[in-house]
Amino acid sequence: MTTKDSSRTQLHTIEGPKGKALLFEVISSGQAQPKYEVDFGGATTTFSSLGEAYIEAGNLSGTPT
Questions:
Q1: I want to staple 21 with a disulfide (CB 3.0 to 4.6 A). Which of 36, 39, 59, 61 is the partner?
Q2: How open is the CA angle 7-9-15, to the nearest 5 degrees?
Q3: How many angstroms separate the CA atoms of 63 and 32, rounded?
Q4: Considering the entire predicted model, what is its pTM?
C-alpha cells in the first residue's frame, strides 16, 4: 500500500508449522513514529514497536522469535 499520505513496506516473513506471518512497517504523514503490522490468516494486527510485532509474528506462525 503506497499513497501520498502513507507507505507500507514488508520487512520480514516468518514461516512456521502454523503458517506464514508477514511483518510490515507503516509510515504515515503526521505520525512521529512508524507502526508495525503483522498479517496472518487474513487478519492484520498493529503494534507500536517492531519487537512486539516480531514476537507476535513468531507466536502466530508457531516459530517463537
A1: 61
A2: 150
A3: 31
A4: 0.86
